[in-house]
Amino acid sequence: MVAAVRQGRSQRSVARDFRVSLATVQYWVQRAEGQRLSRVDWGDRLSRPQRTRRTPAAREDRVLTLRRELRETSVLGEGGAAAIHRTWQARWVTPPPAVRTIGRILERRGALDGRRRVRRPPPPPGWFLPAVAAGAAEVDCFDVIEGLVIKGGPEVEVLTGLALRAGRPAAWPAAAVTAARVVEALVGHWQAAGLPPYALFDNDTRFQGPHQFPDTVGRVTRLCLQLRLVPIFAPPREPGFQGALENFNGRWQAKVWARFRHDSLAGLQAQSARYIAAYRHRVAARVEAAPPRRPFPTAWRFDLQIPPRGLVIFLRRTDPQGRVALLGHTFDVSPDWPHRLVRAEVRVPHGPIRLFALRRRDPGHQPLLREIPYRLPKNRWRLTE
Fold first, then answer.
1. What is the pTM of this model?
2. In what side-by-side order are the strands of the sheet with 368-372?
């Protein structure tokens, strides 16, 4: 480039021919100015200075002395780098270090008031269930995406699912997701994929059942219990418990819903099916390495009138008095455990309720806090539920 410029060509045309910026040509021409090309140092130069100067120890000690003095005697209570710089200027003729240099001295000598946030490693996936956290069991997570509208067409809701360990996804777009459609989708999903030990839901009435009646066991919960699955309900307004599924929901909306124009619900369902098939193909190795599943029982029929029997888990946070609300009742846990997470294992129909302490910081320690007697009332299933 420099040789071409010295032959009389314009720097702009040389930059265009060599496909570099004009600034690059100008830099090398200036660097080789007044030298033979054979004697120019064409090597890269470090952006940092080759020699650095550290503030002498005596000046650093004076900064720390002023820091301690200002913290004890300053009327304003200011002892930061700017206050130290002003005080130094007022007391001595020798110019003080720059404000940023004083700040670096305080940080290097450990004299700052602020504490940096301690970044702790996240708990393992499914940390609230010991078997899942250890990698010995799988849990299927389910959620509903709402608020989608096809232009000139119907509103759309999407039931989504994700195996926490295997990463196997599922999505069922529909005009409306009802509890009956959730049951139908789950049965077909588990017939194809097998039955996991656990299924995680949020507290939507389509999953848990009506909230206005105490001791309600909804349609989806009854399905899980009849298939010998343990339904788990995440705590309300708590982030993180369905983080993997929420991440997949965002990808589905970006790669399926927002990426294409959908003229009809059938077109959306077809596009979603192609995306789910491709996604499952990509995670096939992960699915093979996941914990095993039970085969779906043959000649099985879902009966809503069968009394619920089995284990239901509620993840909840206690109130200021150490109480927890579930199944339309409030139970005392412990006054020493306020605003804390608990895992409530409810054995239906005859109890008990066992309450375990949960801490993200120490997921391996989940002591039993209390055991409470409980009996589920005998109520026949009503078609309005």
1. 0.71
2. 169-174, 155-163, 139-149, 198-201, 230-233, 310-317, 341-348, 353-358, 368-372
The identity of residue 218, as a single letter, is: G
Distance CA 348, CA 222 (A): 11
Residue 371 has pLDDT above 80, yes or no: yes
Minimal CA–CA distance to 328: which of 223, 198, 205? 205
Cα-based distances in Å from 337 to 239, 322, 332: 20, 5, 10
Cα distances from 175 to residues 8, 46, 141, 161, 181, in angstroms, run 71, 62, 21, 17, 11
The one-letter code for the residue type at 57 is A
Counting every residue, how long is the chain?
A: 385
Buried b / exposed e along 255-272 (16+ C-beta atoms within 10 A):
ebbeeeebeebeebbebb
Q: What is the pLDDT of residues 67-126, one digit of tens each?
A: 888 888 877 777 788 888 888 888 887 888 889 888 888 888 777 776 677 778 889 999
Distance, in Å, from the CA atom of 218 to the CA atom of 223, rounded to the nearest integer, reads 9
Q: Are strands 353-358 and 368-372 parallel, antiparallel or unpaired?
A: antiparallel
Helix, strand or coil, per DSSP, at residue 330: strand
With a CB cutoff of 8 Å and minimum separation 6, the contacts of 84 are: 63, 66, 67, 70, 96, 102
Structure tokens at 197: 């030990």
Task: Quote the crossing angle between the two packed helices 99-108 and 57-73, to the nearest 10°.
Answer: 90
Helix (H) or strand (E) holding 271: helix 265-282
* Selection from 346, 369, 347 nearest residue 358 by Cα: 369
Structure tokens at 96: 């003080």
Q: For the purposes of burial, counting CB atoms within 10 Å of the CB of 128, is it exposed (0-12), middle (13-18) or buried (19 or more)?
A: buried
Rounded to whole angstroms, the Cα distance separating 183 from 162 reads 16
CB 29 within 8 A of CB 9: no
On the 0-12 / 13-18 / 19+ scale of CB atoms within 10 A, 187 is: middle
Integer Cα distance of 85 and 88 in angstroms: 5
